[in-house]
Each structure stands twice: as structure tokens, then as C-alpha cells.
């Protein structure tokens, strides 16, 4: 009986820690993308959506509101369906 309680506790702890790790990653992307898209010429909602997709894929967003894509080659190299850059 004690073994079952211990196993349940360990599984609960692992689940909780992974949930908080995912939540903090998502909020980090959101904050970085808000900065990245703050002065963008594109529609703000579209910029945020694309930036979040790229951030989730690459785990990084270049600093500033424009350029600096060499800081994150994965982010820089993602292309849209027409072959242009996907990430703002």
C-alpha cells in the first residue's frame, strides 16, 4: 500500500513540474513576441500568431522589433508556403 502511495506522489510531482515548465515557456514566447511585433507593419494579430509558432518551434525569438535574426538561425530559416520568411 505504501508503495502505491509513493508511486502516485512521484507521478503527480512529475506531471506538475512538466506543466509548469510548459506554462513558463508559453508565457516567455508571448512576452518576447509582444516585443517583437510591437512596431511591425503587418497586422498585429498575424505577427503575434506567426511569432508564437516560430518561437514554439525554435525556442527563441530574436531581440528587438526588427532584424537580429542571426541570433536564432532556426527562427530565421522557417519559410512560409510561398518561400518567403515566415517569422517576423
UniProtKB/TrEMBL annotation:
Signal peptide span? 1-25
Cite the entry's keywords alphabetically. Gibberellin signaling pathway, Signal
Supply the InterPro entries for this chain: GASA
Keyword Ribonucleoprotein listed? The answer is: no
Q: Tell me where the transmembrane regions lie.
A: none
Q: Does the keyword Nucleotide-binding apply?
A: no
Q: Which family does it belong to?
A: Belongs to the GASA family.
Which named protein is this? Gibberellin-regulated protein 8-like
Amino acid at each position: 500500500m505504501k508503495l502505491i502511495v509513493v508511486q502516485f506522489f512521484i507521478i503527480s510531482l512529475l506531471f506538475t513540474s512538466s506543466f509548469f515548465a510548459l506554462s513558463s515557456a508559453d508565457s516567455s514566447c508571448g512576452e518576447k513576441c509582444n516585443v517583437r511585433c510591437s512596431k511591425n507593419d503587418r497586422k498585429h494579430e498575424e505577427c503575434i500568431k506567426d511569432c508564437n509558432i516560430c518561437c514554439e518551434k525554435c525556442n527563441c525569438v530574436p531581440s528587438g522589433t526588427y532584424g537580429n535574426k542571426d541570433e536564432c538561425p532556426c527562427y530565421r530559416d522557417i519559410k512560409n508556403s510561398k518561400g518567403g520568411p515566415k517569422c517576423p
